[in-house]
Predict the 3D structure of the following.
Amino acid sequence: MRNRRIAARVMPAVVAFALVVPGCASASQTDQPAPQSETPAFSGSSSASWESQARTVAEVAQESDLIIDGRVIQEPVTRMVNFESPIVDESGTPTGTTHTTTIAFADTLFEVVKSYKGNPPTQLLVMQTGGKLPSGETAQFSDDPLYRVGEEYVLFLVDISGDKIHAPDRELYRIVSPAGRFLIDGNTVTTFAEEYMNQQLPKTTDELERQIAEAASS
């Protein structure tokens, strides 16, 4: 394989790759682990680069289709998606072979407690990269860990319903960025990405709701 290379490698930022339909790769879903010749889904906990660079409430609000207060009512359901990318030689000529990378995605069911933007259904599915792997390991990102039943969040969501890989015939959402996910604990709200902590993100539900209202009126 010294004189070959993969035309469309999975980016180190799995989220950036996963949330954009690859222009030069095909995908399929499976409940089976990848063969040894394929690149398996990542495991453990890691951080990632995101498609969106929104880092403030105003920025994630602008990019969101829905803003909700939601409660997790079902464990995340994992999907294994195979991405096939053509392999080319050093001159850029396709070799006629492909490389398969398998990535885990999890869909979590939320009950909508309150809506701040848009007209959400009473329940909706939120997708994230990661999940329970066939090996029994858990794959997740430190700035977007898997949701847990009973947790309550304010989520800034993008509607990806109709996405040909993740939601060809159903409604599905994802958060804009880690700045669009606030865990509620009483009157305290927190995010999971340390790099966002210096962006003057709100620390209380009152301040979060104030900033959401300001974003809506601007």
In short: Residues 1-26, 30-41 have pLDDT under 50 and may be disordered. The first strand starts at residue 4 and ends at 6. The two ends are 54 Å apart (CA to CA).
